[in-house]
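Q: What changes when copper (II) ion is included in the input?
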Amino acid sequence: MLETSPPAVLHGSPEDPSEERSALTRRGFLRGAAATGAGLVAVGLAACSPAASATGSWAYGQSIPSANPSGQPASSGAAAPASVAPSTGPTPMPSMDHGSPAPASSPGASQPPDHDANAKAVVDRFLGGEGASLDGAGNQPFEPKVDGDTKVFDMTVEEIQHQIDARKDPVAALGFNGMWPGPRLNVVEGDKIRATFTNKMSESTGIHFHGQALPNAMDGVPHITQDPIQPGSSFTYEFVAKTTGSHMYHSHHNATDQVGRGLLGAFIVEPKDPNKRYDKLYGATQDIVWISNDALGGFTINGRGFPATSPIVATLGETIVIRFMNEGNMTHPWHLHGMPMHVVARDGYPLGAAAFTCDTLGVNPGERWDVVIDCDAPGAWAFHCHILQHAEGPDGMFGMVTALVVKEANAASAPATTAATTTATTVSARASAPNFECPIPGSL
Ligand SMILES: [Cu+2]
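A: The predicted holo structure follows.
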């Protein structure tokens, strides 16, 4: 018998983006900056401090030129402006194309004279909710059809236009169901899965469910277990979801190019026993998928580069889970300021007694690591890859950077404690808090 997938207590679900107007108290922001003293968060402080000297609320979120302030996901890739010619051709090498050339290697190199202004401007864009302003958000939950005892996922593989941030031309990307990352597929251990991929591209492909125990014929490797899926054709993968935890699905054909251009997505298998799920095990109220890539469009988190990455917004005392997934070709050591990460699973397998705590976690290509974060320090905490060429250059931060914003809640907006509390409820509590002054629209 089928079980219903656990409720998506996730950001970006269709019902919540317009309400996800998270905010941060001035006091929390200042405290956060003071605690770190310098560096990335101090840049964020600089962005807020001029208005902080006044008594009124800050006015972020008004300078983003793109339409769609609701952040509502589009059903297909972002349309390219008619006057903009999207990039074409094979996936470029990992680049510094977020407006930041490679850092100067000369010990005597001086900081560009306009560094501070440029660095502030890019942080202002982030605080203004640039990510939420863009169409074409990926990683959206996808409800399967139910056919008897089988969950059916009808998927397309297609060429899309995708924006890495609001200022760059759309790139010629690839998407599942029109989005990058593809839809987030949540199932329950023991579910029968039928996933049909229809190839609408002009090139062949094959889809592999990475991390799943599969019948060999369902492994998705062209010329090994199946013929390539030709343009206009479909292939159906049928299997029982056996391997619990954080997994992925992606192209396994011309993969440097196809995965590099966006054919990737999360496949999450919740344990059949509800008591083994993260909401029950850890009291997690947010379960966040974080897929990195490092090819087309440079260094990205869930298909966006800073400042169009989405902040993670939590309430003081809340516990959240992040599922890191690396679909790129490089390792990325994710570093969180302000509080540690408790690492509880690797590649979907619980670490048990081997669980550990750290503040910088290297994630190799193909790996998935699940971490639990107790949000016990108010403030805006930088959260970035610590290969600095992936995160900050002469023109400020770019690429693999976001922030964990921990808001102070008043008594009326205590954090939710179970996953049964819906996102809408959580958002409502946040929206009713009177002391939030610095809105940061959008979140992962
Ligand atoms: Cu990196």
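Observations recorded in class: DSSP finds seven helices and 25 strands in the chain.
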